[in-house]
Design brief:
Layout: H1 2-21, H2 59-69, H3 71-74, H4 83-87, H5 98-101, H6 106-115, H7 134-145
Helix pairs in contact: 2-7, 6-7
The structure holds heme C (HEC).
Heme C binds next to helix 2, helix 3, helix 6 and helix 7.
Length: about 150
């Protein structure tokens, strides 16, 4: 009887742990700010998970790319404040928000830039930038990291 109880308890603990770790969500506090809707972020897929930035200091190169590719939706400052970005549903994310910056690792940002709407919430208008080289996408990640308020 005791053994059975212990086994049951063990199973329950494993299930609880899996629930606590699973999903890659951040408890619904996506985007931190007030402009963006609450988004449960999806988990980073296996082929992107735990990738790290080979060019973490390439902020200047990343800034040029960001100004050319991202500001139309995410705004000049990356905070989502652009007419196009605000007209989208969901709105373009505030990339300066601590609620975003603290919730994700570089692998998430690199994945989202690469696959765009495919990794986003329903109806996302985020562009996929798989035509940029990997190096360029990592340079953008370095710049996005510098945007944290
Ligand atoms: C055509 C508009 C558009 C362009 C261009 C665009 N984005 Fe987005 N982006 C969005 C929208 C809308 C969202 C919010 C929905 C989502 O997460 O997919 C978003 C979300 C994101 C997210 C996820 C934020 C979060 O809170 O999880 C990142 C990171 C991001 N964009 C980075 C970029 C970068 C970097 C560029 C330029 C290389 C870029 N975006 C270009 C529209 C755009």
């Amino acid at each position: 009887m005791k053994t059975k109880l212990m086994i049951l308890c063990g199973l329950a603990c494993v299930a609880a742990l899996a629930a606590a770790c699973g999903g890659g969500t951040n408890g619904g506090k996506a985007n931190g700010g007030t402009k963006a809707p609450v988004v449960l972020r999806k988990a980073v897929p296996a082929d992107f998970k735990d990738k790290t930035n080979p060019t973490p200091d390439a902020k200047a190169e990343g800034e040029k790319l960001f100004k050319a590719q991202c500001v139309s939706c995410h705004g000049d400052n990356g905070d989502g404040d652009s007419p196009t970005g605000k007209a989208l549903k969901p709105v373009a994310a505030d990339l300066t928000a601590a609620g975003f910056q603290d919730a994700v690792k570089d692998d998430y940002i690199f994945w989202r830039i690469t696959t765009g709407a495919a990794g986003g919430p329903e109806g996302s208008g985020m562009t996929a930038f798989n035509t940029l080289s990997e190096e360029q996408r990592w340079q953008i990640v370095a710049y996005v990291r510098s945007l944290k308020k």
